[in-house]
Design a protein that fits this description.
Distance between the termini: 43 Å
Order of helices and strands: EEEHH
Shape: globular
Strand content: 15-25%
Structural class: alpha+beta
């Protein structure tokens, strides 16, 4: 199974070097030190999520085709 992960640097000074790992199709988020740490945390979380779903005889969501994009918002809009 393949799941898309969106990584986002955590800007809180007490989490220097940490990244969020968002798994959109599962609506899950975790974090880890660096991209690799966040990726491993996401892998662990996905495994736990799948185990829980199977234990409760619930369906496991599969990843559909996904895309990622950025959009720039002009400073004037932000205030």
């Amino acid at each position: 199974m393949i799941y898309s992960i969106l990584y986002e640097k955590i800007t809180d000074a007490s989490f220097e070097g940490y990244y969020y790992a968002h798994i959109p199709v599962l609506d899950l988020t975790t974090h880890g030190l660096g991209i690799e740490g966040a990726k491993e945390a996401a892998r662990d979380l996905i495994h736990l999520w799948i185990e829980e779903k199977k234990a409760n005889d619930e369906p496991v969501k599969l990843q559909a085709e996904s895309f990622f994009s950025n959009i720039e918002i002009e400073d004037a809009v932000l205030g």
